[in-house]
Amino acid sequence: MAEMVTYLPISSPFVRFAGRYVDEAFGVAAGYNFFVLEAMLVPFEIVACNLIIHYWSDIVPTGGMVAMILVIYGFINLFAVKWYGESEFWLALGKVILAIGLILYTFITMVGGNPLQDRFGFRYWRDPGAFAEVYSTGSLGRFLGFMVCLVQASYTISGPDYVSMAAGEAENPRVVMPRAYNKVFGRLTAFFVLGSLAVGINVPYDSQEISDAINNGEPGAAASPYVIAMNRLRIGVLPDIVNALVFSAAFSAGNSYVYCASRSLYGLALEGRAPRILTRCMRNGVPIYCVIVVLLISLISFLQVSNGTATVLKWLVSIITASQLINFSVIAFTYTRFKKACDVQGLSRDKLQYKGIWQPFLAWYALSGCLTMALVNGFAVFIHGNWQITSFFFSYTMVGVFPLLFFGWKFLKGTKIIKAEEVDLQKDVEEIDEYSRNFVPSPPG
What we know:
Shape: globular
Order of helices and strands: HHHHHHHHHHHHHHHHHH
Structural class: mainly alpha
Distance between the termini: 32 Å
Helix content: 55-70%
Number of helices: 18
């Protein structure tokens, strides 16, 4: 993605590249898949907000809390969008502080810096151990436990794709974007690895509190290993601070997804791939009908009223994970076509601002890995005694919808897969070249 975007930095790059380098129908399917991904993240964050807020009080019923959050999201995205950037900056800063703070908390407490002076270190890696047995016993059970964790981890893989969305609006993108990709990759890797280590250090996998929170929907940050560890170590105040920061992070994320999903749908409408009515905007430039569509989809969050918060979170994680993995598969396959076109047309990748290593082998590895994970996303429903139609539906809907969109658009529009020698690698490039040659940095301040 970094290689393609630095060569041609445009808005919504991976969706538009899919149409340019592979097939218009492939781009349409990629666009709708990304829209579903963004739109489904909104009810997920709403459900999470409701779960967290009940840590303090149950005075507001679930339906009322969901309705209030939806109204606030609607107001911000329709009438207060001019404050979006400023608010997201400060809320994002809070997320970084939270992540760093929890990692430092783990280190300090594990060496004895806690009220009980308990130097627990890596105790839980020995007892009960590092690998849980799930659905079976012995080696098979530990392997299935690893698979459950791997599926859950697939939900979290995002970052570089969101950086790409800003390519068309970035200042001097051919210089800025490579740095951004490297920084995001390094920071996400550090946070994910250290965060995973911290979770295993703070609580054992057989924690009854974690089990109750996941399976029975216990309220608030009770599902957080950090809060559980804080309560075990009799640390006061910090659980409330963590809960408040987690709530602000979830609320901020939901608001961001309303914005991103509505703009993704708006982009599809502008290109004639969605109903034209969705191109209508308010005086402040907000695509009102696109925002309304996203908010209507977010009504899915009311499912928790009858099905329970924990259950609905699992459903939403399943469909989001599938869409996320399909999105990365699209990026990987699109890159293989881009590289093939470069080779056939004599465009040397050595002259690009950013050149990926070990390509196209890593792209094919990413493609095979993401497709495999998309197919095993809901593997648990196929284990004897675990079959649930709703879980199967949420796990595999997008796996079926994506090819339907692809072949449906091909049938309606008669599109063809673009041959490597016919791929247009020069469109819009001259304009970017001229911009880069004549770029003058803005004065600081």
